Automatic annotation (TrEMBL):
Keyword Cell inner membrane set for record: no
EC number per UniProt: 3.2.1.8
Family of the protein in this entry: Belongs to the glycosyl hydrolase 10 (cellulase F) family.
Name of the protein this chain belongs to: Beta-xylanase
Superkingdom assignment: Eukaryota
Originating species: Roridomyces roridus
């Protein structure tokens, strides 16, 4: 039978992907599922700052290399994740309080990562979780030291390092039409002024949902479409979900044209970052759950 990735592509979408990393892909059952059922991978942790550059100028690409090599060998797209985030920062970065020094460090980090994987990445979450729920900019080490210009600086560095990568801003609770969605549209518009080459190619909606929220996702995607860039659902999981909730989210992406891709945040329930809530598509025995079958069902209908 066709995989949910193949079925999703039949609806004109780019891929249906999954977050994973070396410690999961080295388990044969996980590699088999990632290979058969999904069309893209996101490194769940291996491309985050503290994993990649634990000391200044000392790069550790071991985990990221494994993920990228696996994806290339198996013909999967790759969503890189992430560069500018207030979390997962090593102390040496947090200790930099001089703006120009931090800009130099940021530009070097982005350039090193994108040069290493030149031409291999489909997209990158250059900016992760920049907004408060009211739509204002979150205060992080980046904005405190560099200011809001950090977003433009990071996007320009990424564009220069590999122009083939789609550059995303990724955030959570964009799951209904709300003030944070409006803030995201404003942020993208401010970075993509009319008459200039756009810096932002896409908005990632993480979609770490709560049970019962799936019906509102469509309205969130429609409102995000106002920014005029691609949209990706990037980290979908639904604790305690009815199988139909997964179906509803997939249907929302299919019916909103700018929504190009959808990724779930892990393969097996026990490996989820919220492992007690069974939020994913495969159970502890690597069996496809009713949620998986509900997605296949909706994708099989014209
Ligand atoms: O690798 C170490 C291990 O050596 C150590 O023994 C263990 C002890 O705590 O920690 C391990 O690192 C953990 C890492 O996951 C790898 O498993 C970190 O503590 C833990 O904080 C980290 O959690 C990740 C979290 O982001 C923080 O970066 C989750 O796996 C990951 O699913 C989660 O993903 C985020 C997205 O990046 C952004 N959106 C929200 C999403 C969920 O929080």
């Amino acid at each position: 039978t066709a995989s949910i990735d193949n079925l999703f592509k039949n609806h004109g979408k780019t891929f249906l992907g999954v977050a994973t990393d070396e410690k999961y892909l080295t388990v044969q059952q996980n590699a088999a599922i990632a290979g058969q059922d999904f069309g893209a991978v996101t490194p769940e942790n291996s491309m985050k700052w503290a994993a990649i550059e634990p000391s200044r100028g000392v790069f550790n690409f071991t985990g990221a290399d494994y993920l990228v090599n696996w994806a290339v060998t198996n013909g999967k797209s790759i969503r890189g994740h992430n560069f500018v985030w207030g979390e997962y920062l090593p102390n040496w970065v947090l200790n930099i309080t001089d703006a120009q020094t931090l800009i130099d460090v940021l530009q070097n980090h982005i350039t090193q990562v994108l040069n290493r994987y030149q031409g291999l990445l489909y997209a990158f979450d250059v900016i992760n979780e920049p907004l408060n729920q009211d739509g204002s900019l979150k205060s992080t080490h980046w904005t405190q030291v560099i200011g809001p210009d950090v977003f433009r600086i990071a996007l320009e560095a990424a564009r220069a390092a590999d122009p083939s990568v789609k550059l995303y801003i990724n955030d959570y609770t964009l799951d209904w039409n709300n003030t944070k969605v409006a803030g995201m549209v404003n942020l993208v518009n401010s970075l993509n002024p009319p008459g200039q080459p756009p810096l932002v190619d896409g908005i990632g909606s993480q979609a770490h949902l709560n049970a019962g929220e799936a019906p509102s996702v469509h309205g969130g995607l429609v409102a995000l479409s106002e920014a005029g860039v691609d949209i990706a659902i990037t980290e979908l999981d639904i604790p305690g979900a009815e199988p139909s909730e997964y179906q509803t989210v997939v249907q929302a992406c299919i019916s909103v044209r700018p929504c190009v891709s959808l990724s779930v945040w892990g393969i097996r329930d026990p490996d989820s970052y919220r492992p007690t809530t069974n939020p994913l598509l495969f159970d502890e025995s690597w069996q496809a759950k009713p949620a998986y079958n509900s997605i296949a069902g909706v994708l099989n209908s014209p």
